[in-house]
Specification:
476 residues; alpha+beta; Beta Polymerase, domain 2; cca-adding enzyme, domain 2; 3 domains; two-stranded parallel ribbon; 21 helices; 10 strands; 45% helix
Length: 476
């Protein structure tokens, strides 16, 4: 039985000098093995799709393991969100085993294996390369040379991410003392940190993300080169930067991650003027309120909207420009549109925000002036807006941060939840007769018309156009 297990795990026939390695003891080349149960891994927490991917590959004669963050989080008793699989099968061989799968990535080929809506990223063990194609700064441009599992482990970034878990045999393989570092809550780079950062500068962002998310301390040698090499992030494709920043803000510990970014000096230039925003009291209050709300939603297993998140991160800059342009005499809405365009143009130079996300951001921002108009059919029409809920939550952040009077947020909360009579009362309270309407243009002179039979002074309809779904309340 022991011989069969060795053959299954290591892919070779057992030799006479092979013996079952005691749990946690080196078996070969620094490899340590642990029963998953000893490390507290709950098999029920492992994705069934990842299990089936490993099982199918193993039944076809290949090695296959859950690897990376899913293993790390399972040991830390955190709920793993992503499960990646590593195997000695090539992408074409993996593709042949799974009907619903596809090969992606010219630089770093992986296979997406699909089970319903769940996607398991399956990668082939990578080889150590001394002559890999790189740019002038040392960033690896092409990486599709296959190697051994030991090579693959050495290619991974941090020791805590270089753990391989066989869910079928319930066994963890550890080549770089990752279990030890998890237990001591240490983030340590595999190999020479400066060289690894040059290979892929995004690893510097990952230091901040993992340190903030996991509450780990960064080992000194891993931290030391970051300040010097931070400018290399300017050579990373903007799409990759956006993906990594989104992971950071969606980590559930975004405030802690931001503090790590600031500590490492990595926030400069990633989001234009983010460093300035976080040093201004008003901007800092708003951004912190947005990130706190995002962290709370993640803790409650609620979905988050990238559009809402990035709309919040960029709002302090847009709001400051909006006020400045308004002070120069531009109309309210037009000033906001000019401010939005200018900030997004700057943003596009650093982060490739997807078009659909930019569209969501624009809608959330453009609705904000309408919340201050609480007359006629405007509030009813706003309730029907497809982005009302996101825009309303955004309004509440503005109130929470002190930008707006909290009474405005409460008014809209009551209006959205109220019945017809309650809404009429709220509108009357917000717009008592004779009081100028905030934000309205000066009233134009209207030609009097003769009243029809039976019409009194209170019989005229509101001058605002009627909303078919929510007509304006009749005058009392």
């Amino acid at each position: 039985m022991i011989k069969a297990l060795i053959q299954k795990v290591f892919g070779r026939k057992p030799r006479k000098d092979d013996a079952a390695a005691p749990a946690g003891k080196a078996a070969r080349s620094g490899l340590q093995t642990y029963p998953g149960a000893q490390l507290g891994i709950d098999p029920r927490g492992i994705s069934q799709a990842a299990y089936r991917t490993c099982e199918t590959l193993q039944q076809a004669g290949y090695k296959a393991y859950v690897v990376g963050g899913g293993v790390r989080d399972a040991i830390l008793k955190l709920k793993p969100k992503d499960f990646d699989v590593a195997t000695n099968a090539t992408p074409d061989q993996v593709r042949a085993l799974f009907r619903r799968s596809r090969i992606i990535g010219p630089r770093f080929q992986i296979v997406h294996v699909m089970f319903g809506r769940e996607v398991i990223e399956t990668s082939t063990f990578r080889a150590l390369q001394s002559d890999a194609l790189t740019d002038e700064h040392g960033r690896v441009l092409r990486d599709n040379e296959w190697g051994s599992q030991e090579d693959d482990a050495a290619r991974r970034d941090f020791t805590v991410n270089a753990l391989y878990y066989d869910p079928v045999a319930d066994q963890v393989l550890d080549y770089h003392q990752g279990v030890r570092d998890i237990q001591s809550r240490t983030l340590r780079m595999i190999g020479d940190p400066a060289t690894r950062y040059r290979e892929d500068p995004v690893r510097m962002l990952r230091v901040a993300r993992f340190a903030g998310k996991l509450g780990f301390h960064v080992e000194p040698a891993t931290r030391k080169p970051v300040a010097e090499l931070a400018p290399l992030l300017g050579n990373v494709p903007s799409a990759r930067l956006f993906d990594e920043m989104l992971k950071l803000f969606a980590s559930g510990k975004s405030l802690a991650c931001i503090e790590e970014l600031r500590a490492e000096g990595l926030h400069h230039g990633l989001l234009p003027m983010l460093d300035l925003v976080l040093e201004l009291p008003e901007g800092q209050r708003f951004v912190e309120a947005a990130l706190r709300a995002t962290d709370e939603r993640i803790a409650q297993d609620k979905p988050i909207s990238p559009g809402f998140l990035f709309a919040a991160l960029l709002w302090p800059q847009i709001n400051a420009r909006w006020k400045k342009i308004r002070a120069e005499g531009e109309a309210l809405y037009q000033a906001l549109m000019i401010a939005i365009d200018s900030v997004l143009d700057e943003q596009a130079e650093k982060l490739a925000i997807q078009r659909r996300i930019v569209s969501d951001m624009r809608e959330i921002w453009s609705v904000q002036p309408r919340f201050e108009r609480r007359t006629g059919s405007t509030p009813y029409r706003l309730l029907e807006h497809p982005r009302f809920r996101a825009a309303f939550d955004f309004l509440l952040l503005r109130c929470e941060s002190g930008e707006l009077d909290p009474a405005l947020g409460q008014w809209w909360h009551d209006f959205a939840d109220g019945d017809r009579d309650q809404r009429e009362a709220l509108m009357e309270a917000a717009n008592p007769r004779g009081k100028p309407r905030t934000g309205d243009a000066p009233a134009r002179k209207r030609r009097r018309r003769s009243r029809g039979p039976g019409e009194g002074s209170n019989g005229a309809q509101d001058s605002a156009p009627a909303d078919p779904g929510h007509p304006p309340p009749s005058a009392s």
